[in-house]
């Protein structure tokens, strides 16, 4: 009965065409990389996927604005954080603090701006530890990444247009609880001082928690520590009532996704096989996104893992999967502690 209800829910709300479009954008980038023997095209696939997630799906004008804004913002901010991190861990931590806090403050401009900003911050925490050896060559991957973003934009706006979605679809995207809080805030502008205080507290909480995660993985010398910083960014909500269930959903979704990733990695051992496997995974990630955050993470995890494997193959996928799970749980724990300890009184009972 529960399975039937879930399938009905998915049928009602999922958008297969959006999933296919996002999957096509990412898979095509990987196939181009195969043809050119250029593993760095994994960054183009990641850029295409994130740009698809950043899309404001109400009007064609907003769709173009959101995708281009994300492409430029994530590329510039990602390059700056990468350069900062090359100067040392402290400089990298400061860059993360500034970028993520700024993304948190974007909530005051509305849900669409916040979604673009938080995804751009996510790109930064993934890029920040990429080796930089100085000179223009150290940033060459950014050009490939930007190309993927622009390709996804062209595919969405020019080549493969899809009818605008219902508002409820947008509300189920990343940080949906934060988006609802923004709408409620604008309906209560007469209490502007309180809104500003809560907004600043949330932005600082998000920035501090993500920076703590970044410093923790560096102190513990954990590989692929960006899974911890990503977890903080995508779990932490304005209140404990939103953060706690989201952390559980991410943990469960990560476990399921890790199992899927290990199984597929055993079969997809070549760049071409990985590119072909990514298509259905990203399609399901985007299509089932409205069903629930846990389902979204369950397919997001193997999608991201395979794209990362495309650029840098892993010889012991099982140990690598366990490491990803550990860093995800670390990030979840940091997000929960931050929610309960950093300015908890102002929003403790807020839904």
From TrEMBL:
* Swiss-Prot/TrEMBL keywords: Cell membrane, Membrane, Transmembrane, Transmembrane helix
Q: Which organism is it from?
A: Duganella dendranthematis
Regions that span the bilayer: 68-101, 113-132, 138-160, 251-279, 291-315, 327-345
Stated name of the protein? Integral membrane bound transporter domain-containing protein
The membrane topology noted for this protein in its Swiss-Prot or TrEMBL record is:
Multi-pass membrane protein
Which Pfam families does the UniProt record give? Answer: FUSC_2
What superkingdom does the record give? Bacteria
Q: What is its main location?
A: membrane
- InterPro entries listed in its UniProt record: Memb_transporter_dom (IPR049453)
Q: What does the similarity note say? A: Belongs to the YccS/YhfK family.
- Places the protein is found: Cell membrane
Q: Where do the Integral membrane bound transporter domain residues begin and end?
A: 212-337
């Amino acid at each position: 009965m529960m399975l039937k209800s879930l399938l009905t829910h998915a049928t009602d709300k999922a958008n297969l065409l959006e999933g296919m479009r996002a999957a096509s954008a990412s898979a095509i980038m990987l196939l181009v990389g195969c043809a050119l023997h250029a593993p760095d095209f994994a960054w183009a696939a990641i850029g295409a996927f994130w740009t698809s997630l950043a899309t404001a799906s109400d009007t064609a004008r907003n769709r173009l604005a959101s995708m281009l804004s994300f492409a430029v913002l994530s590329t510039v901010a990602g390059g700056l954080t990468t350069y900062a991190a090359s100067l040392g861990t402290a400089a990298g931590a400061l860059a993360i603090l500034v970028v993520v806090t700024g993304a948190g403050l974007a909530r005051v401009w509305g849900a669409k701006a916040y979604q673009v900003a938080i995804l751009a911050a996510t790109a930064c925490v993934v890029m920040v530890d990429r080796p930089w050896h100085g000179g223009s060559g150290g940033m060459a991957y950014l050009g490939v990444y930007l190309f993927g973003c622009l390709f996804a934009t062209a595919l969405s706006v020019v080549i493969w247009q899809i009818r605008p979605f219902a508002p409820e679809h947008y509300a189920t995207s990343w940080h949906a609880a934060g988006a609802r809080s923004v709408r409620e805030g604008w309906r209560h502008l007469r209490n502007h001082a309180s809104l500003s205080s809560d907004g600043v507290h949330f932005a600082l909480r998000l920035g501090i928690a993500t920076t703590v995660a970044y410093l923790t993985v560096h102190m513990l010398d954990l590989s692929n520590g960006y899974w911890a910083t990503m977890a903080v960014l995508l779990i932490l909500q304005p209140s404990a009532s939103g953060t706690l269930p989201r952390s559980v959903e991410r943990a469960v979704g990560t476990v399921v996704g890790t199992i899927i990733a290990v199984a597929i990695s055993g079969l997809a051992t070549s760049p071409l096989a990985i590119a072909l496997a990514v298509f259905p995974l990203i399609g399901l990630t985007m299509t089932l996104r409205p069903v629930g955050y846990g389902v979204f993470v369950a397919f997001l995890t193997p999608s991201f893992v395979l794209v990362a494997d495309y650029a840098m193959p892993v010889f012991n996928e099982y140990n690598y999967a366990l490491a990803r799970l550990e860093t995800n749980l670390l990030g979840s724990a940091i997000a929960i502690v931050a929610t309960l300890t950093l300015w908890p009184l102002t929003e403790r009972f807020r839904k």
